[in-house]
Amino acid sequence: MEKKSSRSSAGNRKFKWNLNVRITFNSPVILTMVGICFLATLLNYLTFGQSNRLLFSTYRAPLYSPMTWIRWFTHIFGHADWSHFMGNTGYLLLLGPLLEEKYGARRLIAVIAITAFVAGVLNFLFFPHVGLLGASGVVFAFILLSSFTSFKEGEIPLTFLLVALFYIGQQVVEGITVNDNVSYAGHIVGGITGAVLGFRLNGKSGKA
Question: Which of 46, 77, 95, 103 could form a disulfide linkage to 142, CB 3.0–4.6 angstroms apart?
Answer without folding.
Answer: 95
